């Protein structure tokens, strides 16, 4: 039975029955959706955000200069780091979770965080991978089978030299030069970006977007090859997958015959509930992101609707070692332009491995640039369910011994970098914000090595909630997708065992 049979009018109290439900359409959910569709499994994807179709006019997303409700998820203001500007309440593309000791940024929309993630497709080394993940995950298999499989869909590539040579990527060239002076390894990494469209931006044939540093609110030119344009498009084309935007899942629970009941609110673009729906499925895949997936599991455990969940749900959360700094130089930098195209890898740091990624940031001062550091954070954070508000509170011990160690390691890298180049830190590492929330329903503690939730044969976690707090000094999107590919192989081969 194909997707057309799923398109039914919902009356009050109607319960729909399908084989599989995927909650969320980011990297894990997109992978799960495609592989389920290719296997001929009738699947519904529930995505809280809206679709963001790229228009010829180049006006899908708002800009930093003129922010509006499209910028932020059901918020009266833009994020404080981006100005805190009053806006209309709308189902915007960037969602901010304010916690105790940390603020987490995540995407909202068909394609999840891929809509605003910058395109970085970055694989960890085997040595660092095993400082985070258990040996039950075979890195060699990931390297041989699953990382290449993801790349075959995303088709990432490094920035071409002709584009790097333009004024828009001046800071990236400066960083490569300065890293070489400091004897630090620096390189271009693969990006999920259509560089021909970037060339059209440079030539004035497309609205300037990538080249002017648009990122957190979305890329209007279409250069960003987000998941709605590859994995999810392919999933829909199978005829077995229906993606439903503006569907906010509120509850998951056990149903009869080893099935699951999923309750969701259909909302309009202002966040107003216009319908309540119930779906019963045989297979349930959680891909709402570290915070979204964990909150659903915590709510189900707190209300007794998934009684066999591990006591470890909500624990082992981390910020991927993210910290923002500002490097001051005596040169022109064009710090608000270009994109994330280069990386400095200080894996031999005497304190702890460190990665530095320069990226454009609105309002960054000329003669300086913003850099993001990544490190091996420990999963010391947690989410705790607040029954009175029906939400999960995020807690991060930013002053823990390991987080102090990470800060010292980052400062050590910058010290060597600055000594070699006559630069300085206008802002030392600030770890109050993360764009890479990870953990909460992790391997071993809550799931088996393939994402199957302990105690529930047909319930799976396929997103960043599975990863214990760090992605081994890399941006996590590629690894989330590769692990999801691995899990789906196991699922479709029928070999899930505790």
Sheet with the most strands, sense and barrel status? 7 strands, mixed
Rg, Cα atoms, Å: 22 Å
Mean pLDDT: 96
Low-confidence segments, ≥5 residues, pLDDT <50?
A: 1-12
CATH H level: which superfamily?
FAD/NAD(P)-binding domain
Number of strands: 20
> Which CATH class is shown?
Alpha Beta
Could you say what the CATH topology is called?
FAD/NAD(P)-binding domain
Number of H/I helices: 10
Count of discrete domains = 1
The coarse overall form would be globular
**Which structural class best describes the helix and strand composition?**
alpha/beta
Helix and strand succession?
Answer: EHEEEHHHHEHHEEEEHEEEEEEEHEEEEH
Strand content: 15-25%
Helix content: 10-25%
If classified by CATH, what would the architecture be? 3-Layer(bba) Sandwich
Task: Give the assembly state of these chains.
Answer: single chain
End-to-end Cα distance, whole Å, is: 31 Å
